Amino acid sequence: MSRSNLHSMMPSSARSGPGRGTRARAGSAALLALLLPSLLVLSGCLSGSSGLPPKLPLPIIAVLTITNAVQLPPGTQGVTYSDTINFTGGTAPYACVSATGVAGLTLQPTVTPTANGGSCVLSGIPTMAGTFTVVFDITDGSNPPENTLGQSFTITIASPFGTVFTPGSGEVGVAYSQTFTYTGGQGALTSCTLAPLPPGATAGSVTFTGSTCTIAFTPSATFGPTTVTLTAQDSGNPPSTPKSTSTEMASLTIFAHVAVAFSAGTPGVGEAGQAYSLSVPTTGGVPPIANCLFTGLPAGTGLTMSMVVGTNCVLSGTPTAADAAASPITLTVKATDSAANPPNTTAPVTATTSAALNIHAALAVPGFAPGQGEQGANYTLTIPTTGGILPLAAGSCMVTGLPAGTGLTTVTTSSPNCVLMGTPTAADVTASPISLVVTAMDSGDPGTSTPPATATNAAGSINVTIQPPLAIAGFASASGEVGASFSLKVPTTGGLLPLAAGSCKVVGLPAGTGLTTVTTSSPNCVLSGTPTAADQGAQPLSLTFSATDSGDAATATPAVTASNATPVTVPIAAALTVPPFTPGVGEVGQTYTLSVPTTGGVLPIASCLFTGLPVGTG
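The structure assignment produced for this chain is given below.
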């Protein structure tokens, strides 16, 4: 009986065919056990033997079975996969038809024969990740053919091997550390490298363990922004799945260490009552600057606004009080950059610097007593200012309130003063001095956006007096007399009194007159003495007096000297005498008149007194 005849004697449930399972194999084995004794007898009869032959040539055919483990070797999505599917039993020739359940994997048709079966290869590139049930269709050469569709297997396809590579930024001199976790693929990492390496990093700066790769180093110089490549390999699962390589590219920047420094001329100066804005630039650091903090400002300065503007730290406000000039404010600024997780493992970096800040008092033109001027004498009045941000702006001084024709026409700016100059051409009314209004403007400070300040003195606080010119005129002369005390007071008018000590002089006194003393008794000059000789030839003395006032240092007004334009006539008479005389003879009862002449003296004779007359002469 042939194998084909025997196969045809089997019930359909025991034959190979689609959907055959374990139960079908068990049925075939039971049928074979029932038929075996009959087949042996039948075989003996056919051979003409009356007994059992010593050896039965009938073969025993095993069931077609896949011998791989139920769990097939894992694979990775996108990575070439290859696994040998081994089978035994059945009858050659065999055919590897198909595999269902995993997209991208195909059962190759080539059969490699073995002693009791064969093998074929499951290969391809999986296109989906997950755990899948796989059914292989392998058939033999029986009629009808047996197949393996009753066996199912499990295969796990991992997701693609890779990581999210975000190296972020670092900062020179600040430790940098980033760890990247890989997912997908097969097994632990077997390598991890970074290229190009930034300054300060070496090959040893990149380490790996398990599924993580760490980059740790301290940057020594700036770098980038540059595209760097992180390359890693997993373990794979040979021989079915080779190692997977992940190549991730991203931009890495190493910034200079954050720094903050005051620009030249800053923090400059502020002024009470004037808007102030200080911009302190930062450099380096991981942008943007996250925070700026100004410290050292006393309470109540009015500088309260601190902010970040671009890469600058800005302090602004309106100062409300001046600092003590000898003790400026030590202003400290601290800038913090954005170096923080994520994505950087570098903590925020801070830079600090300090400088002295002066807040000046507000510009002011204080009132003061400006001294006096004198008509016809040069006059310079220096008007001081206080506070403000000096120097005063060029040409900023203005003086108003001067009546027309005063001659004080020049106003100059000589920081910190305003200067009024000229030669007064008229005196003011002493009871109504000139009230000046003085305006000045300082320079402000462009470096701190402090605008120029303008100040004006309080009304009536600067009053200028212009005196008439010093003069000696309009006084009455006097006469002297030989041997009689003489004193002539010569008054002065105008000028800046008192007269300078010892400044009175007299010209025209001949030697030997006895009038030797000239004194200064402001506002007068005094000529005194006892004349020793009378006018010569009836010619009186013709005298010229001069005097000098004090001037005024406060207004740079010089001392002025004046003299009488017309000489003063001072007659000196001879001493009054009554020369000898003859009184004549009188007669009782007759009118008597005696005229006694006098000589010299300052006429008229003020009085005459006769003595020596007896009582009752009449």
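Interim note for the steering committee: The chain has two helices and 42 strands. The two ends are 227 Å apart (CA to CA).
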